[in-house]
Amino acid sequence: MGFRFSRRISLFKGLRLNISKSGTSVSVGSRGGWLTFGKKGTRATVGIPGTGMSWSEKIEDPAPKGEQPSVILRLVGLVGLLSAILLAGIYIYAFFATVSR
């Protein structure tokens, strides 16, 4: 059996940084559903919380070198980025709102 390494760091609620021996990725979602963006492409995972059962599927392979990514891949990436920025803004606002009281 080979050596394995994997670490999941929760940056904000709904946003995780995944670090493993093969590289890093970012996951956006909550219990029951996640979108993971990494160098091997985008993966959607849907599960039934508390059961250990889930379904994971690759959404689309990354574009080969020299080709432009598809519109869907760009849109998925943009939605993930905007979600992360929105969540970060909400948490920063909530932090300063509670500190200033």
Please, could you describe this protein's structure?
The radius of gyration is 16 Å and the shape is globular. It has one domain (6-99). By secondary structure, the chain is an alpha+beta fold. Helix content is 29%, strand content 43%. The protein has 1 helix and 6 strands, in the order ββββββα. The model has no long low-confidence stretch (mean pLDDT 80). Strands 1-2-3-4-5-6 form a 6-stranded antiparallel beta sheet, with helices on one face. A hairpin with a 2-residue loop joins strand 1 and strand 2. It has one helix spanning 71-99, and strands at 6-12, 15-20, 23-30, 33-38, 41-48, 53-60.
What is the CA-based Rg, rounded?
16 Å
Shape: globular
Q: Strand-and-helix sequence, N→C?
A: EEEEEEH
What fraction strand? Answer: 35-45%
What fraction, in percent, of the residue positions are helical? 25-40%
Poorly predicted runs of 5 or more residues: none
User: What is the total number of structural domains?
Assistant: 1
Which structural category do the helix and sheet elements fall into? alpha+beta
Mean residue pLDDT = 80
Strand order within the widest beta sheet: 1-2-3-4-5-6
What is the first-to-last residue Cα distance?
Answer: 55 Å
Our count of helices gives: 1
Largest sheet descriptor: 6 strands, antiparallel
Number of strands: 6
